[in-house]
Specification:
The chain is built from 6 helices and no strands. It has helices at residues 13-18, 29-32, 38-47, 55-67, 74-84, 89-97. The radius of gyration is 17 Å and the shape is elongated.
C-alpha cells in the first residue's frame, strides 16, 4: 500500500508518531499512558512500526478478517468474545465438527 506508515493519509500515524494535530483523532488512554512526555510517547509509538509482518502472517490476518475469525490464543479469543458478545465463526465451525 505505502512504504512508510506516515504516507497513508487515513492513518493516525502522523498524529500518534509524528505529533501532527487533527480534530478527527482523540488519543486513546493506552497511548496516553505510555509516557507523560509527548516526544517519548511518539517514539514509543514509532517503535511499534519498526518491524514488518511476514507475508504468511499478513495472509492469515486477511483470511481471518474476511471470515470473521479471531487470531490469537484461546484466552484472547475468550476476551474478544466477551467484549463483543459474539462467538467467532471459526469456533462455531470447530464446535460443529466435534
Amino acid at each position: 500500500m505505502v512504504n512508510d506508515p506516515a504516507e497513508y493519509i487515513w492513518s493516525s500515524y502522523q498524529i500518534n508518531a509524528l505529533g501532527e494535530t487533527s480534530e478527527l483523532c482523540t488519543p486513546h488512554q493506552i497511548f496516553l499512558s505510555k509516557s507523560q512526555n509527548p516526544q517519548a510517547r511518539q517514539a514509543s509509538y514509532r517503535a511499534l512500526f519498526q518491524h514488518q509482518l511476514d507475508a504468511k502472517m499478513i495472509s492469515d490476518i486477511r483470511q481471518a478478517t474476511n471470515k470473521g475469525m479471531v487470531i490469537g490464543s484461546d484466552t484472547f479469543q475468550d476476551q474478544i468474545e466477551k467484549l463483543t458478545g459474539k462467538v467467532s465463526i471459526q469456533r462455531k465451525w470447530d464446535a460443529l465438527l466435534r
